Amino acid sequence: MGNLEWMNGQLLVLIAENHVKKLNKKIWTDMISFHIGNRMVSFRKNYLALITGFKMGGEKPIVPGEDNICDIWKRFFNGRTNVSRADITRAFEKFDNIHVQKEPIDKVKLVVLNLIANFIIGNQKSVKCPPMYINMVDDLDLVKQYPWGDEIWRDLLEKVPKWTQNIKKAIKDRFTFLGFVFALQIWAFESFPALRLANVCTVEEGRRSMWPRLLKWSVPNKTNIATLADAIFQNEEFEYQPMKPTEEKLKIPEIQELHRKKTVKLAKRSNLTLKHQLSKEEADFAIHELEKAIAEIQDDHEAHAEPTDSVPTDCNHKEDVGMKEQNGESAIRSLCVI
C-alpha cells in the first residue's frame, strides 16, 4: 500500500490503548477519540476521506448476496460460500496455474478482490469474505460505485473499541487488529509531526502531492516502543495537527460535503448560533462568515472534545509486523473517488 513496507504494530497498540469509549453510540458517529498525554484528539470521518480517497455518500448500489453466485465465484472458488482470505490470496497468486477458463479481465477482478480481502476485511487466513464482495468484483462498475468510505468508517466505529478490549484481555503480547488499520496509521503520520522527526515515517521526494494521502508515506525502519513514547505517548507537549483538505481537494464533492458538515457541527458545538436546519446557500454563507472564528476554536475543540466511540494485521507489542505489497497501489486507485 504505497511505500508502506511495515505496518507499525506498536504504534497501533499504543493508539488503541488510549481509545475513549463513546457514551452514546447514536451520537458522535463522525469521530473516534483518543486520550493521549493530557489531550483529547480525534480521528474523523473526513480524515478517512483524505487518507483513502474512497467514495462516501450517495446511493448505495444493490449488490447480489450469496443466493446469487456469480461467474468468477463459480470458476475460482467452486461456488463455496465460506471463501476465506487465504483462498482469495491463493487464487490471486496462482492465477496462471489455475486450470479454468479465464479472461484477461479476471486477473483485474482478482487483484481488486485480493485488495478487499487483505486490507478491508482482515489478514487472518481464516477470516471469511462476505459473499457480497465476491459478487461485486464480478462487475467492476459496482466496485467503483460502492461507497467504500462509508463501509470502512462504520467498520472502524465498531472495531476500534474491540481492539482496546482485546489488548486488555490478551495474555500474550500478540494482538489481532481487524479492519482498515492503515487509516489510523496514516492519521498518526499526518497529525503527529514528532513521528516524522523521529524517522518513524517519511515522505519521499516525488510523493508529497500524491493522492490519496496514504500513497505518499513510507516507513523506513522498524520502531521501538521507547521512540514512540518519547515522541508522543509520554510527551505532554507533543504537537498535534488536525488534517485539513487542500483547496484542490475541497473541489471533490464528497470531501466538500464532509468538510461542510464538520464545520457546521463545530460551530454548533462551540455555541455559535446557527439555525437548526439550513439551506445549502444559508449554510455556505454562515460557514464563510464563521471560518475565522472556527479556525481559532478548532484546536481547542480537538483538545477538549467529548469522548466518543476498520484492512488489518496481527500486531506484536514488541515487534513491528512486515507487510508486503500485493499490487495494492494500483488497485486502491480503482476504489477512489477520482
From TrEMBL:
Region (Disordered): 301-326
Basic and acidic residues: compositionally biased ranges: 315-326
Transmembrane region(s): none
Residues annotated as domain DUF1985: 32-156
PANTHER family, alphabetized: DUF1985 DOMAIN-CONTAINING PROTEIN
Protein name in UniProt: DUF1985 domain-containing protein
Species assigned in the record: Cuscuta europaea (European dodder)
Lineage of source species: Eukaryota, Viridiplantae, Streptophyta, Embryophyta, Tracheophyta
